[in-house]
Amino acid sequence: MKIMIRKDSAGILSAYVPKKDLEEPIVQMDKPHLWGGAITLANGWRLELPDLASDTRLPITVEARRLEG
């Protein structure tokens, strides 16, 4: 699914899922950087993100895969 990841002025990362009209803060990352691992949103969804460079600029729209569990 396509998601947009952005960082607000307070430095909080969030993910927006246009198909669901859902925006949630990112509360956990499996890796020290955002890319190439799984993230957890505040609503409990876990998403696997593509492996991009750690200095990739935000906001960005990427293809993510929703993980079960």
CATH topology, anyone? OB fold (Dihydrolipoamide Acetyltransferase, E2P)
The helix/strand order is EEEEEEE
> How many H/I helical runs?
0
Q: What kind of sheet is the major sheet?
A: 7 strands, antiparallel
Strand content range? over 45%
Weakly predicted, low-confidence segments: none
Oligomer: single chain
Overall spatial form: globular
How is the largest sheet built, in terms of strand order?
A: 6-1-2-3-4-5-7
Tally of strands:
7
**CATH architectural type:** Beta Barrel
**Helix content, binned percent:** under 10%
Q: Briefly note the structural class of the backbone.
A: mainly beta
- What is the fourth-level CATH superfamily? NifT/FixU-like
Report how far apart the termini are: 17 Å
- Reading off the top of the CATH hierarchy, the class is best stated as Mainly Beta
